[in-house]
Amino acid sequence: MRLLFKCLVVLQICVLISTVSANDVKTTDVYARIKAGIDAVSAINTHDHLMPFEKIGNRDRTDHGEGMTLRSIWAGSYFPWIHSLEPWPEDGSFDTWWSKAQHNFANARATSFYRYLLPAFQDLYGIDFDTITPKQARSLNDRIFENYKTDKWLREVITERANIELMVIDAYWARLDFTTHYPFTVALCNVTSVVRGFHPSEFDNPLDNPYEFARHHDIKVKTLDDYLAVLDRIIVSAKKGKAICLKSTLAYNRTLRFENVSKERAATIFGRPRKELTGREIKDFEDFIMWRLVELSAKHDLPFQIHTGQARIQGSNPMLLVDMIQENPKTKFILFHGGFPWVGETGVIAMRFRNVWIDSVWLPTLSYTMARRAYQEWLEAVPSNRIMWGSDTGTAEGIYGATLFTRQCLAEALAEKVVRKELNEQDALRIGRQIMRENALELFPQLKERLWRK
Ligand SMILES: [Zn+2]
Asked: Is the pLDDT of residue 148 over 50?
């Protein structure tokens, strides 16, 4: 009787283990093959914020001089968006910082904003951050400090370890400067600031200032028509500077509902400073300019990347863009971040309009589970050549983590479909290559001349 009971217990445990592993596709051979296929793709990363090396921020004043620390990596990550991070101490000592900072992570262990960096610590430094000891933390900090003494570490991690061939940089710190700072980076034209160009007093950064651009190019700006000519000229310059698309992050500042405001109305607002305008007038002017930019995007054949979802969430649902998308069929719209959390809405927009692409950039970092589900739902609703990805961060460790997170998430999504017999394995591998690389080359054919791997 006792033996029978023991056997039953063992049997129950076996059933439990097999159910658990059957539910985790990562334990299957199909997943291993698809993951290996996706890891081998020399990736085209459609969006990142990697600054020129000397500008990479959050460096700390330590007892060995100024440099990048473990705090710098976390401070430059998305973790501080959801949790406080201990500031660097006055005494410049890592041990002082860590004695407090080690408690910052306890309530964030399950969040994607914490977890996306873990693969970087594990794979690049051999450290499990979930169980890190004070001694390991000090050693990790010292190694980070050493690695950032030159830009060699960046190049090695991004191009070799993360296997990224090209990376499109959104230089929000110098939006109208199309210089690239690394052989593997590509420029874009961020038009967020020019939308509010009703008056020169709107701009304090000369590298964001369309009036400064006009002065530099000897263009007089007296009328709204002059201003529109400057916008055209900016986009021509961007294209000459090898920028591959336009980009808007207006979702952080205002609603994504852009009305088709008349030129007469916009002309009554142009040339007046903000203090003389109502909120309604400012919005109308911005709406008018956004429509003109959407037209210029089509005219110059530069697709338009638009931040949707997580930002100013009262007005960042991608559905708010639908009228503008419908009225501008020649513009190629790229809906960023999968519209998180409105991933289903993003799917139906891309299903309905052939001039819409979905970029899953940042989505696995926002919510890994939602990203995995979104890849499956989108692939059911949208042709597989209209989905892309990007890392959207600014340190070697962040880029590595976000890239690995995306490759793993996509491999899981595809392997689950193969296991459920909703997709064959060869097609899953092809879709993996499309999302990680081929779709960006198809949408931005000028990238082909920038490829450097033979
Ligand atoms: Zn971004």
From this structure: yes
Structure tokens at 391: 């890392």
Report CA(405)–ligand 1 centroid distance (Å): 16
Give this prediction's pTM: 0.94
- Whole-number Å distance, alpha carbon 337 to ligand 1 midpoint, is 9
Query: Cα–Cα distance between 160 and 166 in angstroms, integer?
Result: 12
Whether the Cβ atoms of residue 256 and residue 308 lie closer than 8 Å to each other: yes
Span from the CA of 369 to the centroid of ligand 1 (angstroms): 20
C-alpha 388 – ligand 1 centre gap (Å): 14
pLDDT score of 22: 54
Distance in angstroms (rounded) separating the CA atoms of residues 282 and 280: 5
Which residues contact residue 154 at a Cβ distance below 8 angstroms, ignoring those fewer than 6 apart? 50, 53, 182, 396
Confidence check: pLDDT of 14 > 50: no
Ramachandran angles phi, psi of 293, nearest 5°: -65, -40
Per-residue pLDDT at 6 exceeds 70: no
Identify the bridge partners of residue 345 per DSSP, sorted by sequence position.
none
Residue-by-residue DSSP string for 257-281: ------HHHHHHHTT--GGGS-HHH
Q: Which of 207, 325, 210 is nearest to 260 (CA)?
A: 325
Q: Is the pLDDT of residue 5 over 90?
A: no
Going from the Cα of 70 to the center of ligand 1, the distance in angstroms, rounded, reads: 22
Q: What is the mean pLDDT of residues 393-403?
A: 97
170 Cα–ligand 1 center, Å = 7
Q: How far is the CA of 78 from the centre of ligand 1 (A)?
A: 11
Residues paired with 307 in a beta bridge: 336
In Å, what is the CA distance from 164 to each residue of 157, 184, 320, 385, 432? 9, 8, 33, 19, 14
pLDDT at residue 23 in the model: 82
| Strand 164-169 to 185-187 pairing | parallel
What domains sit in the chain, N to C, each tagged with a CATH number?
A: 57-147 (no CATH), 163-450 (3.20.20.140)
Query: Residue 334 Cα, ligand 1 centroid: separation in angstroms?
Result: 13
The rounded radius of gyration (Å) of the Cα atoms in the chain is 24
